[in-house]
């Protein structure tokens, strides 16, 4: 899962990025509204953390522009605690949730997990596919109750597929959501990670859809017709 953090306070930006990285997310960052708007408009993100008080272009304007351009990724806005009007303006502009400063990082992490789950149609922090269970809170995965020992890239791939269970996901989409904008992306590595996941899980849950990509389905689930 790939997150964008747009915050002009360098210390807070760093703290958010470090906390998200520890949770297994790929993180891009911006320090002003113009850069943030550009990244959000040109790169695919699973969620965005957006400060309201930004230089160059304020957060409300950034959000309004994204929504006008049909950018539908979940957005968590950061507001000043005593500025209730910012919260209202943010929600009206298209924000999905907000956190008031100062805040605990754990709260931001929980809200981001919830936004990503809801955007994919999931209510629980534990996602299942047959015997596979992925706990988005602890970043752990088990098959039949046995813990899987996964690398960070393997977990990111598994997490993205199970968030989009039943959907065909292209190699390009997987690459875009597994690596930040500075990474030398190679879609061929996806095949390697899929192969490793299949061996470690020991169950046939990841289907190759020839010419299109991959789809996660529980054993016995078949397409209609």
TrEMBL record:
Residues 124-218 form the OmpR/PhoB-type domain. The modification 4-aspartylphosphate is found at residue 51. Transmembrane segments: none annotated. Keywords: DNA-binding, Phosphoprotein, Transcription, Transcription regulation, Two-component regulatory system. It comes from the Bacteria. GO terms for molecular function: phosphorelay response regulator activity; transcription cis-regulatory region binding. It holds the Pfam family Trans_reg_C. PANTHER family: REGULATOR OF RPOS, RESPONSE REGULATOR PROTEIN CARR. This is Response regulator transcription factor. It comes from Pseudohoeflea suaedae.
């Amino acid at each position: 899962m790939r997150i964008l953090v747009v915050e002009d306070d360098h210390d807070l930006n760093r703290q958010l990025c470090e906390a998200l990285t520890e949770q297994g997310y790929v993180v891009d960052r911006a320090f002003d509204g113009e850069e943030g708007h550009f990244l959000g408009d040109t790169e695919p993100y699973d969620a965005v953390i957006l400060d309201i008080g930004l230089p160059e272009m304020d957060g409300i304007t950034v959000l309004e522009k994204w929504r006008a351009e049909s950018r539908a990724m979940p957005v968590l806005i950061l507001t000043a605690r005593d500025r209730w009007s910012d919260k209202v303006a943010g929600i009206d502009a298209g924000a999905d949730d907000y956190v008031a400063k100062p805040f605990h990082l754990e709260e931001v992490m929980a809200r981001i997990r919830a936004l990503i789950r809801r955007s994919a149609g999931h209510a629980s922090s534990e996602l299942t596919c047959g015997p596979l269970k992925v706990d988005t809170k602890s970043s752990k995965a088990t098959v039949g109750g046995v813990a899987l020992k996964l690398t960070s890239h393997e977990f990111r791939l598994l997490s993205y597929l199970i968030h989009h269970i039943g959907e065909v996901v292209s190699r390009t989409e997987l690459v875009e959501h597994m690596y930040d904008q500075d990474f030398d992306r190679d879609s061929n590595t996806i095949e390697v990670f899929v192969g490793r996941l299949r061996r470690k899980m020991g169950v046939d849950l990841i289907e190759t859809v020839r010419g299109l990509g991959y789809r996660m389905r529980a054993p016995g689930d078949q397409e209609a017709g």
